Amino acid sequence: MTRRAPEQDVDETQLQVDKPKDYAAGIPGVLVSLQHGVQQMGAARTVRTLRLLNQREGFDCPGCAWPEPQGHRKPAEFCENGAKAVAEEATKRRVGPEFFAAHPIAELAQATDYWLGQQGRLTHPMVVREGGTHYEPIGWDEAFSLVAEHLRGLSGPDEAVFYTSGRTSNEAAFSYQLLARSFGTNNMPDCSNMCHESSGSALIQTIGVGKGSVSLADLTNADLVLVVGQNPGTNHPRMLSALEEAKGNGATVVAVNPLPEAGLMRFKNPQNVRGLVGRGTPLADMFCQIRLGGDLALFRALGHLVLAAEDAAPGTVLDTEFIAQHTHGFEQWAAEVRDLDWDEVDRATGLPRAQIEELAGLLVRSERTIICWAMGLTQHKKSVPTIRELVNLLLLRGMIGKPGAGVCPVRGHSNVQGDRTMGIYEKPKAPFLDALDAEFGITSPREHGFDTVQAVRAMRDGAAKVFFAVGGNFVSATPDTEVTERALRNCELTVQVSTKLNRSHAVHGRTALILPTLGRTERDEQAGGTQFVTVEDSMSVVHSSRGRLAPASEHLLSEVAIVSRLGRALFGEDHVVPWAEFERDYDSVRERIARVVPGCADYNRKVRQPDGFVLPHPPRDSRQFPTSTGKANFTVNPVELIEVPAGRLILQTLRSHDQYNTTIYGLDDRYRGVHNGRRVVFVNPEDLTELGFADGQLVDMVSEWGVGPELAERRVKSFRIIAYPTARGCAAAYFPEANALVPLDSVAETSNTPTSKAIIIRLEGS
Ligand SMILES: Nc1nc2c(c(=O)[nH]1)N[C@H]1C(S)=C(S)[C@@H](COP(=O)(O)OP(=O)(O)OC[C@H]3O[C@@H](n4cnc5c(=O)[nH]c(N)nc54)[C@H](O)[C@@H]3O)O[C@H]1N2
Ligand SMILES: Nc1nc2c(c(=O)[nH]1)N[C@H]1C(S)=C(S)[C@@H](COP(=O)(O)OP(=O)(O)OC[C@H]3O[C@@H](n4cnc5c(=O)[nH]c(N)nc54)[C@H](O)[C@@H]3O)O[C@H]1N2
Ligand SMILES: [Mo]
């Protein structure tokens, strides 16, 4: 216990690299899930816990937001990485007061994310006061008074920031946004700002709803599925089963990615014997190895070719009836893309023209097309126009609002979509606030609040002074690590509601609190009886989740209880919001959700249905498009090439197979052949030769941002080069180790999402 926290996980000479795998899951997947479970929870608890995962009477997986099948569920409705997420939470390891007494905060701040996470579950509320060197225990009541005191002492409510990570339940999220708005601010940044914000921005503008338009049944019945900028083998493994089923029904699957990700190439389904012992199913029929940021040019070229096919055989390719009846702006868009600069497409995508033509042919012949995407599309400067262009492509052939077709942004955190539905948003719409105000008799602020990037700036500049986070790991998840650390240290108070220890506890404001909370897997007992919570998956299905395990410590409070007690401390017992009742019985929160949140009428009954219920989605349900024009909008999206100076590479930051965002499960990335280390950078062998570097060499990565006297450099040290078959000119390294390279001001247009997938870097021998 008193062992000093190591500043490095392993001596990097321990790192081993072998050939990348060409398949995902199979027997190694099953073994690894059990191994993680047994290490963290012991054998009996592993079996008991995994049996309840994603079952109707059990709990929703705290891993990704992939939906469960409606109706029939398999006995094992989870994947290797879901099992790891559960093992992390249900671990028997504990971080209590003795741990904090033994480890000064300065030491914790030096430790790696991996080591911090491995220490176990937080058990007691802890505080460090100004000038303190160690966290010390504090009672819950005193903790809430302390927060309330700091909040009341601010010059105005906008000096407070209320962050949310996407694991928070609907009940906690609804209460939390109500607390922030009752206090008087819309400063509610969330992980979505760094994640699918670009998808929401683009979809709202084009189809009027910022969510995906397909169900799981649509996916398995599509005849063409494009998986763009996504690595489902690692991040949404259960999606591979759906793709396998779609293929079984005759679908063609196309992967668009700079990396040949194992799961997209071949899948050995661990849920059937053939998958375990056989060669598995080749998933992608076509692999377009695109350059980073090349997708806008690709979609434009595809639109151009579809249009050309229509021009060559009028009346046979486009869905002219759909276009006439349901869309706006087609002519303007068509005039723009009829004239295509192939040279620009070539430079942006790096794809052979014949392959783009072949893909256009697939689109022209498809009756039911779905495009799936994730961070490879959302974390670029031109993300919003790229996703708008993807929508254009689908609109051309009427691929929205019919079975087997549509847009499928694959969400990250298990309830990130639900949190937004419940009002966690820095730019809330007036009708939502009006309903909230009418229900509770409060006056919500109308000015927009800070998103994540703006919140960092505000804290850095002293404009925000109290930072309160329900979940997440703000310091490690946000870009520009040095700036973010400075921003948090500049706060008067930082509060982290967390399950596990992470860097955001070690890099803190002048006073800091850790408020330990129940996880999704744990039993939630309140005065009104055993509670359940609700969540929304990536396909707008809302359902219940019931924790079953004994809580990690008797001192934990649920997130709903924490928000409610803070509400009482801040506003007093006779506030218009019945905070005590909210905590006593979550049905009372759900009654309010039913009256305030669109689509949630009769919420308490509907979430008790075996599979929950599906939220309305007008484009999907009835081809109604609630946009500014009342129709689906075609938009014009000019290509802008990423300028890469000579001798530089474009770097993307991504996830290994052994992590959940900033939670590092282990030091392997099995599918990419990396073992026992994370400080690596993947570079194409031909680029290495051209740049004068070699496989295995240790280098610093230096990012370059701005021009002339404005040029700023950021450096991370000692990364080992791995020669890897990524697209030419493109490199990859893991998040969060490479976050220090992402400039705070380098963001996507409109969505303000950090450009984590496109940073100009050079390598330097270290
Ligand atoms: N096990 C596990 N599951 C997770 C997570 C986790 O960390 N671990 N995180 C969760 C969260 S919050 C999220 S948001 C999702 C993330 O899910 P993903 O988006 O799959 O995650 P990344 O690792 O960021 O992978 C990005 C993928 O896009 C590709 N890519 C990068 N840039 C481009 C580009 O310009 N064009 C194209 N076409 N492709 C590109 C990369 O090569 C990579 O395959 O997963 C969720 N699920
Ligand atoms: N460079 C780079 N940066 C990125 C990304 C990238 O691809 N590249 N991806 C971005 C994306 S997509 C996302 S979503 C963000 C993620 O940003 P965050 O959501 O802020 O980060 P996580 O690592 O998911 O948060 C992990 C912490 O959440 C806490 N936690 C876990 N479960 C619970 C729970 O049930 N309740 C509470 N209260 N706390 C809990 C634990 O203490 C754990 O340490 O990072 C973003 N940052
Ligand atoms: Mo995410």
TrEMBL record:
Pfam families for the chain: Molybdopterin, Molydop_binding
GO cellular component: membrane
GO molecular function, one term: molybdenum ion binding
InterPro entries: Asp_de-COase-like_dom_sf, MopB_CT_YdeP, MoPterin_dinucl-bd_dom, Mopterin_OxRdtase, Mopterin_OxRdtse_a_bac, Prok_molybdopt-oxidoreductase, YdeP_MopB
Domain of life: Bacteria
Cofactor(s) named in the record: Mo-bis(molybdopterin guanine dinucleotide); [4Fe-4S] cluster
Iron recorded as keyword: yes
Keywords: 4Fe-4S, Iron, Iron-sulfur, Metal-binding, Molybdenum, Oxidoreductase
Residues annotated as domain Molybdopterin dinucleotide-binding: 649-758
Residue span, Molybdopterin oxidoreductase domain: 121-524
Cell wall biogenesis/degradation keyword on record: no
Protein family membership: Belongs to the prokaryotic molybdopterin-containing oxidoreductase family.
Protein name per UniProt: Uncharacterized protein
